[in-house]
Write a structure and sequence with these properties.
Blueprint: E1 4-7, H1 13-28, H2 40-43, E2 48-55, E3 58-69, E4 72-80, H3 89-103, E5 108-114, H4 120-128, E6 132-134, E7 146-152
Parallel strand pairs: 4-5
Antiparallel strand pairs: 1-2, 2-3, 3-4, 5-7, 6-7
């Protein structure tokens, strides 16, 4: 299966539907007030680069890299359509995020994600890719409903 990952401007209805699906999934698996996923307008901010993954012309997933400072980035909005989960889509997007972070000279990338069974596949993906459990960062507050991970790039 060929996965085409490309930078995206979030202008298509198809991408809007995927972000809506992502936000809905985050809300259904997290208590109210504990979802830190970015809305479309936030994903279009100057400090955020957003990618989509396509398989045979069909939107398969997305992910983003948010610049926290000139040496640090944050992985955001990782989502694979349910019918394509565990098919390499998330890996392809994460590979692009890490490649871009290295190109920018970032020394580390962080992420915040949820806890519980719905998030375990994501935890596994990140652990397989060199991320380690970390303390909270930025403006995040640690709760029983979220975890933090980091990967050193330099």
């Amino acid at each position: 299966m060929r996965i085409d990952v490309r930078q995206d401007d979030l202008s298509s209805a198809e991408v809007h539907e995927l972000i809506t699906e992502h936000l809905s999934g985050m809300r259904s698996n997290s208590p109210p007030g504990h979802v830190n996923a970015l809305a479309i307008k936030d994903l279009q901010s100057p400090g955020v680069t957003f990618w989509t993954a396509w398989v045979s012309g069909t939107l398969a997933g997305c992910g983003a890299l948010k610049e926290l400072d000139p040496l640090t980035g944050e992985v955001k909005s990782m989502r694979t359509r349910s019918v394509l989960q565990r098919s390499g889509v998330g890996q392809a997007i994460l590979d692009e995020i890490v490649r871009t972070a290295r190109q920018r000279g970032y020394s580390r990338i962080f992420l915040e994600t949820g806890t519980g069974p719905a998030f375990e596949p994501a935890h596994g993906l990140y652990l397989r890719n060199g991320f380690e459990w970390a303390d909270s960062f930025g403006e995040y507050t640690a709760t029983e409903f979220n975890v933090f991970m980091a990967r050193v790039l330099v």
